[in-house]
Amino acid sequence: MKPLHERGLFLAVDLDGTFLGGDDEDRRELYELIAHHRSDIALAYVTGRDIEFASGVARDRVAPAPDIIIGDVGTSVVVAPDWAPHHELQRWIDASWPGAERAADILNGRADLSPQPVFGSRRLSYYYTNHAAAVAAAAEIEAAGYAALLSANLFFDVLPRGVNKGQTLLRLLEHEGCARARVLCAGDTMNDLSLFETGLRGVAVGNSEPPLREAVAALGNVYRARRDGAGGIVEAIRHFELLPATTKEPH
After folding, report:
1. Is the peptide bond before 98 cis (omega within 30 degrees of 0)?
2. Which of 73, 207, 218, 246 is most solvent-facing, going by the fewest CB within 10 Å?
3. C-alpha–C-alpha distance, residues 172 and 180, integer Å
4. Do 59 and 144 share a domain, yes or no?
């Protein structure tokens, strides 16, 4: 397999609702396209899920296995095939994380927040039930030196300031010497917005949550797909003509 920087396409995909989204035909079409061009595609999962879940998707052959996993909303980075930490990026993330204690003190005991059962060591994650209360809590968290991220009208993540899916991906591309012009990012919720704010080519798949679709409406680098999940990724690859054997979607 060629080094990442020599491959023609770097595909950075969210999992739930995106790479794993769409119907069976959508997924089959995308996964067969990747298999056909696998030696020329660098594949990265960029997910809010933890590394255990994301690596299990690869291990259980639910979807094509990636070369890299950026997990925990950008706060964990591991490398195939053994999912060993990407040491340079992990050092940057660790240096950015002020620790969980102060954030936990601010958020613990709030009736509208409940901890998620699994999350990485450089973030805190909750479910929220009241949007206004979550916005107020986010303001407190950010004043304390963290970043707060609300997505899918459900998830509340506390992250290191300046660390998210988009910034971690940019650091990875720089470290690996990958050209930005060869990258396509794909997502469906607000925790994917940072991917699109990098200026890299992106696709908001057809089932994207309304706040994300609104947020990317003015971004010229982002294609808003008609098809859901995996089908939207195929649509974007054709729209941007990122692989030699693909053509644009018919109008």
Report:
1. no
2. 218
3. 11
4. no
- Kindly state whether residues 217 and 183 are assigned to the same domain: yes
Structure tokens that stand for 152 in this block = 């899918």
Say how many domains are in the chain.
Answer: 2
Answer for the pair 130, 118: CB distance below 8 angstroms, yes or no. Answer: no
Q: How far is CA 64 from its chain centroid?
A: 16
Tens digits of residue pLDDT in 150-185: 999 999 999 999 999 999 999 999 999 999 999 999
Please state, in angstroms and as integers, the Cα–Cα distance from residue 175 to each residue in 71, 79, 168, 205, following that order.
17, 13, 11, 28
Q: Is residue 109 part of a domain?
A: yes
- Specify if 249 maps to a domain: no
Euclidean distance between CA atoms 50 and 93, whole angstroms:
15
pTM over 0.70: yes
Q: Where are the alpha helices (DSSP H) in the chain?
A: 24-36, 51-59, 87-96, 101-107, 131-143, 165-176, 193-196, 210-216, 229-240
Packing angle of the helix pair 24-36, 229-240 (nearest 10 deg) = 40
Q: For residues 134 and 120, give the distance between their C-alpha atoms in angstroms, rounded to a whole number.
A: 21
